[in-house]
Amino acid sequence: MGAAEPVGERERVSERRREEGGNARNEEGRGVEQGEVVGVREKVIDSINFDVNNDLNNHPGDSHVAMMQRLNPTNPLRIVAGRSSRMPTPSPSQTPLHRSTPTPQTPLPRFTPTPQTPLPRFTPTPQTPLPRSTLTPQTSPPRSSPTPQPSVTTLSSRKYTNKISLFLFVFHMVAAVGLVSFLIFKGIQGLIEASESVKRKERNILKFYLPQVEATSLISITLAFAWQKAVRQWPRIMVHFILWSSSFLSLSAGILLICFQKPTTDAVGVCLIAFAIGNGLYACWVTPRIGFCTEILIKSLEPVPKLGDLNRPTYCMLGVGFLWMSLWILAVIGAMNFYLTPVVIIALVLSLTWTAEVMRNIVNLTVSRVIVLYYLRGMQSSTLSCFQRAVTLNLGSACLGSLFVPTIEALRIVVRGLNLLEGEDEFMFSCAHCCLDVLQCIFRYGNGWAYVQIAAYGKGFVQASQDSWHLFQRQGMEPIVDSDITSSVCFLAGVCSGSICVIAVAAWTAKVHQTYTATLSLLSFFIGYLMTRIAMALPQACVSCYYVCYAENPSNILFDKTIQDHQTVMAADHNFEPTPRLPHRFSA
Fold first, then answer.
1. Which contiguous run of DSSP H or E holds residue 270?
2. Region Disordered: what ranges (predicted)?
3. Which of 32, 122, 249, 424 has the fewest beta carbons closer than 10 A?
4. Domain boundaries, position 371
């Protein structure tokens, strides 16, 4: 009996302990349901974890294992200790079950998200200014980089060239229109209010001046288109024909005027005969160059059929020229009854010359723009847009070139003639040497090749002249360019038209009123020459574009080996005589 009491007492103590453990588990379960333990979810625990927990309950003496379990599962000490002891990390659902008190676990889950929440809040704060600060230097270079892009070598320049020359020409045209209008008014006033002698004189002028001048304008326009069409269709024949027919026609016109046996007509006839002799000598001198000139002319005219409306600027300028000359002749008639008649007529002639040259260079710039874009970009541009560009942006360069290029070309002809006539007169040819130096300097700053650069890149006249000549020097094309006779052929075509007009008008005027023969002969030659030069601007522009574009890019597939082969022939032929610039004694 005494032994049974201790046994029963031990059974009661064990039952009391089991009840206390069950009550603790129930209270712990209710605490989880009430939310005392936050952020922990129950998970399914495999058999291995249950065995480990049972071992822990059976061996409470392992204090270091119990201390590791109290640590946060993400604590590095627990991870290292777990790896070293090869114990699996208990799930978060098991940690509150084997801890003596769940109280210290509540701050751990509550404080763990606290440092995590500011991280996503503060991380975008330094990131948002970074793209803005990085984008700011990236957007600024594209905005500042296009600023220097529109340079002098762009094909789409939108700036006006040679504004001073443009202003002078516009001012001149305003003054010319005002003068012509005033002189026409004076002519009409003379017909109505003047005395009978003045009325009779003006009627004779209208009767014998106006019909001849209008007929000359129509004849010259017809001849202009005829010469241009013939040169485009039969260039090999027309180059020879123009060189020799110009001499023959000017000689015929001079002989005809001398036959009238008037002092004025004799003077004009002698001038024409002298010109015919010089023209014949020039034709003999340039005969060896005709073959190469013809080849270049044929090559340069190849793009013209592909550009169907390339002749429209020529039609426009010839129509405007015809209307302006009709008004101009009325102003000349009105100047007959005004003070300082010779001075006024000379001013009208100079104005008409400059205006006609500007119209010719407008055609030159338009054609050059179309041909340059064809060579450099392989594109067919609008002739209308190129014409609008020529009469607006590049008009100042056309006005400046119209003043200087004819003078420079005439000076070159004189100097070349002096080189051919070299003799023993030291004084004469020392003067020629001085003139050649001046010409060389002037020609570098003003030449007819400048119109290609003006039309292509919108450069000023002087800059375009320098750049064009620099291109020729870089490619070694100076002898070839100097020996080109295309401009001479176009000039002599105008001489042919002028001579034909002189023959027709002189014969007509001598029949009806012989007193006006010399004056009308000069006037008809002048009008015929100017009209033909406007039409012949097309082939001359094509040849200029061919030379300049080849000098800029000789490897272009649109160019063949014609120029290169000719350079080789010129270098190998010791008997080849380039266009003389200096007399031989000075060139050494």
1. helix 263-285
2. 1-38, 81-155
3. 424
4. 163-199+213-421+430-568
Question: How far apart, in whole angstroms, are the C-alpha atoms of residue 156 and residue 146?
Answer: 14
Q: Among candidates 571, 403, 384, 409, which has minimal Cα distance to 477?
A: 571
Query: Long-range contacts of range 67-75, CB-CB < 8 Å, 24 or more positions apart?
Result: 69/95, 69/98, 69/99, 70/99, 70/104, 72/108, 72/112, 74/112
Please check whether residue 383 lies inside any domain of the structure: yes
Compute how many other C-beta atoms are within 10 angstroms of the C-beta atom of residue 80.
Answer: 11
Round to whole Å and give the CA distance between 310 and 561.
26
Helical spans, DSSP H, in 194-262 = 196-208, 210-233, 235-259
Say how far apart CA 181 and CA 176 lie, in whole Å. 8
489 in any annotated domain: yes
CA 529 centroid distance within chain: 32
Spatial contact of 534 and 363, defined as CB atoms under 8 Å apart: yes
Backbone angles phi, psi at 461, to 5 degrees: -65, -45
* Structural domain total, the chain: 1
- Measured CA to CA in angstroms, residue 74 lies from 69, 91, 112, 120, 325 at distances of 11, 11, 10, 20, 103
**pLDDT surpassing 50 at residue 182:** yes
Show Cβ contacts of residue 543 under 8 Å, excluding neighbours closer than 6 positions. Answer: 296, 297, 300, 484, 486
CA 488 to chain centroid? 29
Residue 35: pLDDT band (50, 70, 90) is: very low
- Hunting for tokens 């290609």 — which residue is that? 452
Interatomic CA distance for residues 490 and 496, integer angstroms: 10
Whole-angstrom distance, CA of residue 162 vs CA of residue 459: 9
Residues 287-316 pLDDT 10s: 999 999 999 999 999 999 888 789 999 999
Which amino acid, one-letter code, is at 346? I
The mean pLDDT value for 517-527 works out to 92
Alpha-carbon distances of 523 from 37, 88, 496, rounded to whole Å: 118, 119, 15
Q: Is residue 137 part of a domain?
A: no
Does residue 23 carry a pLDDT above 70? no
- Closest to 478 (Cα-Cα) out of 440, 431, 446: 440
Six-digit token string for 212:
């001849």
Residues 6+ apart with CB under 8 A from 51: none
Gap between the Cα atoms of 348 and 173, Å rounded: 11
Cα–Cα distances (Å) from 166 to 169, 188, 358, 462, in that order, read 5, 33, 11, 15
Does 444 map to a domain?
yes
Distance from chain centroid for Cα 281: 42
Closest CA to 321 of 215, 402, 222, 217: 217
- Of 588, 586, 275, the closest CA to residue 431 belongs to 586
Tell me the three-class secondary structure of 327-377, residue by residue: HHHHHHHHHCCCCCHHHHHHHHHHHHHHHHHHHHHHHHHHHHHHHHHHHHH
DSSP 125-171: HHHTHHHHHHHHHHHHHHHHTTTT-S-TT-TT--S-S-HHHHHHHHH
User: Considering the entire predicted model, what is its pTM?
Assistant: 0.71
